[in-house]
Design goal:
- By secondary structure, this protein is an all-alpha fold.
- It has two domains: about 130 residues; about 160 residues, TerB-like (Orthogonal Bundle), CATH 1.10.3680.
- It contains 16 helices and no strands.
- Helix 1 runs antiparallel to helix 4 and helix 10 crosses helix 13.
- The relative contact order is 0.09.
Length: about 300
């Protein structure tokens, strides 16, 4: 397959990666694996870069899909691109039955001469269920840490409260990741004080739609994490890969709510929030604007 056809294919992949409003580092790495595999030249990569930096307009999406369908004009080329997709999707495990069905669906879509919005949805589902699935899987080490170090203790502590903890739930896993980062701010002064707990509950109600039980679990996780150390890099990397950008921005207010709960923000608290937000790829302007809101209270 000619390099220009590989380039169109990678642009389509980038469009799919941006479908949820952002492209994670994990998704970028998957795309990099492809262009290394395809042996693209520097000029090709330069043409791809704009698609990695920002989402494309709907017209450009439709143009790319039509171009890809037109460029993959032989059965051999279509089979080759699908085989390369399967090879990367199978890097760690075999395709499941439903994923094989998606591969077949993708082949059918390639045979069409036109793409609709519905076609775009099907192609997006194909990539999210196969190629980009690895970017959203739970980190085994982090998952094991929360299960063995935090949640087992909480299950015993909260036995009889009616709160069931299922770490396989994406929401519970998010709560664990978020609680660890909140604890990183709370433990600056080595205590998770009652005023910090009240301030956190208030801002959680304003920024996130947690149920009462989920909020209770988050507070418990934060308290428990404040008594333990954790691998900051692994947790924040996992948080970034699984949490949409808008929710990461909403989380910034929660960090400042804890830091400012006693009426003042210490230098150490300021630097800890700075460290977390920088690792979360939050612009410095958002860091400053959020801080100002809590300095005025």
């Amino acid at each position: 397959m000619a390099s220009f056809k590989h380039l169109t294919f990678l642009k389509v992949l980038a469009v799919i990666a941006w479908a949820d409003g952002e492209m994670t580092e994990s998704e970028k790495n998957i795309l990099k694996n492809f262009y290394r595999k395809f042996g693209l030249q520097k000029e090709d990569v330069r043409q791809l870069n704009p698609y990695l930096l920002a989402p494309t307009l709907k017209k450009e999406q439709e143009r790319l899909f039509k171009q890809l369908a037109a460029e993959l004009n032989s059965e051999r080329e279509k089979e080759k691109i699908v085989a390369e997709l399967e090879a990367i999707a199978n890097a760690h495990r075999s395709l499941k039955t439903e994923e094989n069905e998606l591969v077949e669906e993708f082949i059918r879509l390639l045979k069409k001469t036109s793409f609709t919005q519905r076609s775009f949805g099907r192609v997006r589902n194909f990539f999210q269920a196969t190629i980009f699935r690895q970017a959203h899987e739970k980190n085994p080490a982090v998952h094991r840490y929360f299960r063995n170090t935090i949640l087992k203790k909480l299950e015993l502590k909260m036995k009889g409260s009616g709160l069931k903890i299922d770490l396989e739930s994406d929401q519970v896993y998010f709560i664990c990741l978020f609680g660890a980062l909140l604890a990183s701010v709370a433990q600056v002064d080595e205590h998770f004080h009652e005023e910090e707990r009240k301030a956190l509950k208030k801002i959680l109600n304003e920024r996130f739609g947690f149920s009462a039980k989920e909020q209770q679990l988050l507070i418990e996780v934060t308290e428990e994490q404040a008594r333990h150390g954790f691998d900051f890099y692994e947790v924040v990397t996992e948080f970034n890969s699984r949490v949409p950008y808008k929710d990461r921005v909403a989380a910034v207010d929660c960090f400042w709510a804890i830091a400012a709960a006693d009426g003042a923000i210490s230098y150490e608290e300021n630097e800890e929030v700075r460290r977390i937000t920088k690792a979360m790829h939050i612009p410095h302007q958002i860091f400053k604007e959020s801080k100002k809101k809590f300095l005025k209270r």
